[in-house]
Amino acid sequence: MILPKGYCLQNGKYCLTEVIGQGGFGITYSGVWNTEVKGELGAVKTAVPICIKEYFFKDYCFRDPATMQVRVHSETGRRLFDKFRERQIQEARILSEVHHPYIVNVLEVFEENNTAYIAMERITGRSLKSLLEDEGQLTEPCALKYIDQIGRALEFVHAKNILHLDIKPGNILIDEHDDARLIDFGVSKRYDIDNQETSTTTLTLSKGFAAIEQYDSDGLTGFSPRPDIYSLGATLYNLLTGCVPPESILRVTKPLTEPSRLNANITPRTEHAILRAIQVNPADRYASVREMLDDLDIPPYPERKDQPVAATGQTTQRAPLTNDDERTQLLTADVEETALLTPAEQPTPARRRKGKRRVLIPLLIGLSVLIGWAASYLIGGSKPAPTNEPTANLLLQSDAGSDRSPFDPPTVAPSSAADKQAEKHQSEEKKTDKKTEEKKSDKAETTTHDDASSETSNARYVALVASGKMKMERGAYADAKRDFASAKEIKVTEEVIRLSLACDDRIEEDNVRARKALYEQGMPFGSYTIVRKKQNGRYGAIDAQGIERIRCIYLSVGRSENGRAFEREDHLYDIYNANGTMVARGLTTY
């Protein structure tokens, strides 16, 4: 299945050395980039260490051992494979434009062997997950430093309307400078200016780190940083306690243990930030990564010299501006105005709030006085024209020693014209009261109608869930899933999500059984099974999911020193090892 050591891509530009990771959608290799470093005295050939990620949809494809081309088993598999390959290429091209000191850089995206490859910067170091396994728990200053760096990286990609959607210790590398670097944007999503999704990748859920909205395909249709904020908070929880928090979808029945009960050294301020970041309800979390970082007491640490200026009032060495205006987006007005200030003069968030209060308080007082005068004027009615000057002067003099405000309109003795105006005013008030009563009546009718509609929706939801459960009992999982999907359109609950996922599992189990039924199974071969395909009577090998890993094109199978010998049509033998990799081809004997 994997490419052999020393295999070269792009006409020798990249050469692979070993496999460093495999997953459901790809294989990651270490390798070298053969290039030249040019100087005044000439060019020197050099090999730069890199990583190469190969798109390999494990459940639907296999590798042709003769050509190393990636092939697909069926037409359905071909459509899925092509669909996700294009999305992978699209996402990688987006990320090749994203350069940040705390994100591993994508160097190039290209297609070869009927699949896609991503060439990435290789980091000398280890993953945060590996570090955590050795340490058990990290100290709070150490964990907060890494969270701050990853938080800055997330601020940067969120400004471009990109969500990472897979933040966890395994996707954070610690480099030789003890800085955190974010990797693996394989399931990221990008949104346009109207917050509508423009790219959709395969749904991947890291248990304990995924927000509840990631369990619902409709939960990420609009851009919001809150799923990444949940994952960042869950990562901090994991670093400080050594425990992965329970899955968000299970939190109703499996409450979260407070971090301080697992690690008494966690400060109340940090615990508060963690608990707010990993609220199950998205609306209860922080609205932005910056808001979360400001709530944490981040210890001082040496900044990377190539760190771009973030929109936080902090100043660091600025990198040159580029044509794609990535850095321009981070240079906000606050940073521009404070760049010439000394550190002591830098307006901290607290100073900014105090400055704003100094300006707002006088404005609010003045505004309150103005509103009070206007209200009193309107309540007292419009100022009528005095019937004669002496009467008006007398009334003004009589008010001089009273408690009346100088802003109150003077009281004028009613005249016949004033009586008529008062009667007219009372008539208008009666009309207004009548309209108000009518509106209240209409509102009551609307509320009754809404209540009836809500009851109808709840009844339909209950009926759909009950119908789906009955179909599951009969084994009609596809039909049951459609009922649960309809119920989810009415309201999303833990119950309906659990049932939908259970249907997916049962459907996949049925598919595996159906695929395996196409073969006569023989002896185990590593993680595979030697089989004879019923359709053509030829031999090969399948994996636990019933997917052909060694194509069923061979006449017979025999034991070999290096694995198994498969007899070809020309009666020569191809030798495969237990990993399903061809190690020799076209031998006369074995």
Automatic annotation (TrEMBL):
Basic and acidic residues composition-biased segments: 420-452
Entry-linked SMART domains: S_TKc
Record key words, sorted: ATP-binding, Kinase, Membrane, Nucleotide-binding, Transferase, Transmembrane, Transmembrane helix
Biased composition (Polar residues): 389-400
GO molecular-function terms, A-Z: ATP binding; protein serine/threonine kinase activity
Gene3D superfamilies: Transferase(Phosphotransferase) domain 1 (1.10.510.10)
Pfam families found in the cross-reference section: Pkinase (PF00069)
InterPro entries with a match to the protein in the record: Kinase-like_dom_sf, Prot_kinase_dom, Ser/Thr_kinase_AS
PROSITE patterns: PROTEIN_KINASE_DOM, PROTEIN_KINASE_ST
Spans traversing the lipid bilayer: 359-379
Listed name of the protein: Protein kinase
Annotated source species: Tannerella sp. oral taxon BU063 isolate Cell 6/7/9
